[in-house]
Amino acid sequence: MGGAQTVKAKPFLAFLLICLSLTGCSLSAHPDTPPQKEKATVHHPLHIQESKIKPRPIRYGPFLYELRSYPLASPLQDGLMPHRLVIPAIKLDSLVEPVGVLPNGQMDVPKAFDRVGILSPWTKPGMAGNAVIAGHFDHYTGPAVFYKLRKLKHGDQIMVHDAQGKSLTFRVKKIESYPAAEAPIDSIFGPSSHAQLNLITCSGRFNRKTQEHANRLVVFSELSY
């Protein structure tokens, strides 16, 4: 891939209020009905019926995260915009779509429960820094795309492919679960001298009153050379 080049990041979104939104990651049409047991391996295409309920943001914060202009040692200066996310260990193959930041500062996610969303504009996979992909854990009919994320182990491969067929492989470094209001935003979204990809979903006890899971599961991975 060649030697790393030092480039200067463009300052953007000088102040970003990030309240991570896993929209609908814990929706339930019938709060008193226990979630269905897992019936099948999650893979693409996923034939999961979409909820007719409008997804609702699940909050992380708020956290005020200030981005400054700083030098980056970027393995791939332009990075890669993923079209597909493939995780062999859990037989996941999902389409990826770019998602932005909502007016209230929350990270959006796809409306489809079988797709994942990459925060954009932001760090792309392959660039020095933290690229972030979020997906649903479950919804009112059962498991969603990131339901098996918690089963990943250190060293497992995470692959992203762009629309032209170019791909990058990351390897899992660690998996952490945090209380929703205490997730380390700087570690997940902040600057880094390494090319990292972080996957986020819900975890923990489900609160039927608030319709939210108590924790957020984060899979930290780093580019494999």
TrEMBL record:
Signal sequence coordinates: 1-31
Keywords: Hydrolase, Signal
Active site: 136, 202
MF terms (GO), sorted A to Z: hydrolase activity
Translocase in keyword set: no
The protein's name in its UniProt record: Class F sortase
